[in-house]
Amino acid sequence: DCTSNVLVNRLCFCHKELFLPTHDALNKSVAANSRNSMFSLFTIRTLDINRNSREVSAEENTTHFIFNMWLDNFGMRFLRDYIREAILKKKLSYSIVKKQLIKWHYGFEYYVERGDKQIAYNWFSLVDEGLKEFFKQTKRGIDNKNYCMQLAIESLTLKFEAILRDIVSLLNGVITRVYNGDTSLITLEQLLDSEVLYKVFNDDDIMLFRQIFTKRGYNIRNYVAHGFYKKGDYSIGNAILVFICVLRLNKFTFYNPSES
User: Fold this and answer.
1) Fewer CB in 10 Å around end: N or C, the chain?
2) 248 in Cβ contact with 254 (< 8 Å)
3) 60-119: pLDDT as tens digits
């Protein structure tokens, strides 16, 4: 048992306490597996949900295999039960999460130029509707009613990228590229390769983000952004993982520029 504040803090800032595989544990498992694996003798190709193939290294293939196996056997079962029990005990809800996040950096006000107008926003305003939908559909699932996580996953996935881009920019990292005189935003995978992120996040965080959103793992961002997911792909498990990643961005609250 714990208070609502402690529970939300745990969801935001903890990793192995949520039974998520750590970066070090994954690396050790991959190294041990590689010594006894024949994969290194062959070219490995993986298929995405559209059956497009891509060549991957033995290390990348084994890393995701072990990450996925860990979640299937331990992590997801724990997270589902943990969130379910917290909701049933009224220690976790949309309003509780909102109250906590608004007090932290999610409530900090930013401004963006739109033509001759200046628009004020905070990060919570970006994830607001997605979080409402996440808790609405999760409660329907708990009550044994039909539920659909499509809107929650699509909204929170795209807003995760938007907030991460803000973070890289605030850390004075590169968020645009120039090619033949044209400028464009760099991809999510390129954002996650930004060294400046290590001023805020650790190896566990970056590994989690890559495994959930990029082609190194479940590739949720790509499937959502390009409309590849069908209704059955919007699982409660995927929704929980995206939810955890969105909360993990709250680590920026504790960033101190003077310590960089």
Assistant:
1) N
2) no
3) 888 999 999 999 999 999 999 999 999 999 999 999 999 999 999 999 999 999 999 999
